[in-house]
Specification:
Layout: H1 10-14, E1 31-34, H2 39-50, E2 56-57, H3 69-79, E3 83-86, H4 94-99, H5 101-121, E4 126-130, H6 159-179, E5 183-188, E6 190-192, H7 205-220, H8 224-233, H9 245-254, E7 257-259, E8 272-277, E9 283-284, E10 286-288, H10 289-302, E11 321-323, E12 329-330, H11 331-342, E13 347-351, E14 360-361, H12 366-370, H13 379-400
Parallel strand pairs: 1-2, 1-3, 3-4, 4-5, 5-11, 6-10, 8-13, 9-14
Antiparallel strand pairs: 7-8, 9-12
The protein binds NADPH dihydro-nicotinamide-adenine-dinucleotide phosphate.
NADPH dihydro-nicotinamide-adenine-dinucleotide phosphate (NDP) is lined by residues 35, 37-41, 60-61, 64-67, 87-91, 107, 111, 130, 132, 188, 190-191, 204.
C-alpha cells in the first residue's frame, strides 16, 4: 500500500481547497479504466490510446467484481494505478431501474465506495467518476445546472440509481476536502455509439430506435437473411433468427415493424411502417460516446478539483461537471435523421398510445464549455458512425461466429 494521503486541515478545506496540488500525468502513467468493456469504457480506452497513453489497464467483471472490497483493494495494491476512470456501473433503462431497485442502489454504492476509497488508500493522483443526468430533480428547471442538485424530489422510477450516483459525487467532494485527493465527478447526458445497448425494448433511445428502423429497411428490401443475422447477433425475446419467416414476421409486427396495410394496386408492395414510441415531440440531448470520452480525458489531464471550487466559498458543493453538447433535438427529428442514416424508404408512424416520458431533458453544459471543452461530432456524423459500426459488427460475427469483436483493451 502506498503512503496514505494526509487529511487536509479544516482551515484549508474551508479556504477553498486551494492547497490541492495539481499532479501531472504523463503518457506512461498507468490509467485504470473501470468498466473498460462497456459503451463508455471502450470509448475512453480508445480516446486514451489516441492521446498516446501506453499503460492502460482494465479488468472484466468476471476478472474483478468491484462490489468486493477485498478484491478491489488487492487489485489497487498490485497495480498501483496513477489515474482511474470509473465507468463501471450497474446501468439500465426505466423498467430495469424501477424493478431492480435494490440491485441498482447496492451494486452502484459498492462499486463507487470500493473504487474511490481504494484510490485514496493507494495514492491515485486523479480519478474521474461517471455519474448521470438522472441525479437532478424530476421537475428540474431546464436546462439543468450543477447547482440544481438536491433542490427538490427525484424521479421515482430511478431514485435508487440516482441516490447511488449522488453518493459517488459526494464521496469525491468529501475525499478531496478531507484528504486532499483530486477526484472529479462528471455527469454525462444521453450517450450513444459503438458497443451500445441495442436491445429493442430495454436499450437506450437512440440505438434501439436505429435498430428498429434498420430492421424496417431489411424488411422493405425483403432481406430475410439480414434480419436473421441481426436476431442471431442480438436475440429478441429469445428469438435468434432460426425461426420460420412467419414467426419472424410476427416478432417484427409485435415491435411495430410491419408491411403497410391497405396498399392500392400499383403501389409498392414493399412499403413498410416502423412505429416510433410516443408523439415524437419530446426534446432530448445526445452525445457521441467518443466525444464523452474526449471530455473525460480532457478533464483527467487538465482540470483539478481546485479549479471547480468557487473563490471564497464556505460550503463547497456542486463541484461536479455536466457533460453535454448544448444541442437538443425532438424524437421526431431524430427518427427522420436515423431514417436517412439507415436508408430506410418506408414510413415512420408515431404510436401516441406509448408514453412520451418527460417533455424535455437538457443539461446546461456551460461549466464544461467554460473549462475549455466542446464536443466535435455532429449528431448526423455520430449516427453514421454508430450505424456503420452496427452493420460491421453483425458482419464480423456472421463471418467469425465468435463473441464481441473490438471490446478488448
Ligand atoms: P455499460 O453497461 O455499457 O458498461 C458498464 C460496465 O461496467 C460493463 O463493462 C460492466 O461489465 C461493468 N460492471 C458492472 N458491474 C460491475 C462490477 N460489479 N464489477 C466490475 N465491472 C462491472 O454502461 P455505460 O458504458 O453506458 O455506462 C458507464 C457509465 O456512464 C455509468 O456510470 C453510467 O451511469 C454513465 N452514463 C452512461 C450514459 C449512457 O447513455 N450510456 C449516460 C450517462 C451516464 P459487464 O459488461 O461484464 O456487465
Amino acid at each position: 500500500m502506498r503512503k496514505l494521503v494526509e487529511p487536509v486541515p479544516i482551515a484549508v478545506r474551508l479556504s477553498g481547497a486551494s492547497r490541492i496540488v495539481k499532479q501531472m500525468l504523463n503518457k506512461d502513467s498507468k490509467v485504470y479504466v473501470a468498466g473498460h468493456l462497456g459503451l463508455v469504457g471502450t470509448a475512453i480506452t480508445e480516446a486514451l490510446k489516441r492521446k498516446g497513453y501506453t499503460n492502460i489497464i482494465g479488468r472484466s467483471f468476471a476478472e474483478l467484481d468491484l462490489r468486493r472490497q477485498e478484491d478491489t483493494e488487492a487489485f489497487f495494491a498490485a497495480e498501483k494505478p496513477d489515474a482511474v476512470i470509473l465507468a463501471a456501473a450497474k446501468v439500465g433503462g426505466i423498467m430495469a431501474n424501477n424493478t431492480l431497485r435494490a440491485e441498482f442502489i447496492y451494486e452502484n454504492l459498492m462499486i463507487e465506495a470500493n473504487v474511490i476509497h481504494a484510490a485514496y488508500l493507494h495514492g491515485v493522483k486523479k480519478l474521474v467518476f461517471l455519474g448521470s443526468s438522472c441525479i437532478y430533480p424530476r421537475d428540474c428547471p431546464q436546462p439543468m445546472k450543477e447547482e440544481h442538485l438536491l433542490t427538490s424530489p427525484l424521479e421515482y422510477t430511478n431514485e435508487p440509481y440516482a441516490i447511488a450516483k449522488i453518493a459517488g459525487l459526494k464521496m469525491c467532494e468529501a475525499y478531496n476536502l478531507r484528504y486532499g485527493t483530486d477526484f472529479i465527478a462528471v455527469m454525462p447526458t444521453n450517450l450513444y455509439g459503438p458497443n451500445d445497448n441495442f436491445n429493442l425494448t430495454g436499450g437506450h433511445v437512440m440505438p434501439s430506435l436505429m435498430r428498429r428502423i434498420h430492421l424496417g429497411k431489411l424488411l422493405e428490401n425483403g432481406d430475410f437473411s439480414g434480419i436473421r443475422a441481426d436476431l442471431k447477433r442480438r436475440p429478441v425475446d429469445g428469438f435468434d433468427g432460426s425461426e420460420t419467416e412467419e414467426v419472424i414476421m410476427g416478432l417484427l409486427e409485435k415491435q411495430g415493424i410491419r408491411r403497410s396495410e391497405g396498399l392500392r394496386v400499383g403501389e409498392s408492395q414493399s412499403q413498410v411502417q416502423v412505429a416510433v414510441w410516443g408523439t415524437g415531440r419530446p426534446l432530448r440531448e445526445f452525445m457521441y460516446s467518443g466525444d464523452m470520452a474526449d471530455a473525460t480525458v480532457y478533464i483527467m489531464e487538465k482540470i483539478s478539483f481546485r479549479d471547480l471550487v468557487p473563490a471564497g466559498a464556505t460550503e463547497i458543493r456542486n463541484t461536479h461537471i455536466n457533460i453535454g453538447t448544448g444541442e437538443e433535438i425532438t424524437i421526431k427529428d431524430l427518427s427522420l435523421l436515423l431514417k436517412e442514416t439507415t436508408g430506410f424508404g418506408g414510413e415512420l408512424v408515431f404510436d401516441t398510445g406509448k408514453p412520451d416520458g418527460t417533455p424535455r431533458k437538457f443539461l446546461d453544459s456551460s461549466k464544461l464549455h467554460g473549462l475549455g471543452f466542446r464536443h466535435g461530432t455532429s449528431l448526423r456524423d455520430g449516427a453514421k458512425k454508430m450505424y456503420d459500426w452496427y452493420c460491421d459488427d453483425i458482419k464480423a460475427i456472421g463471418s467469425s461466429e465468435v463473441g464481441n469483436q473490438g471490446r478488448l483493451v
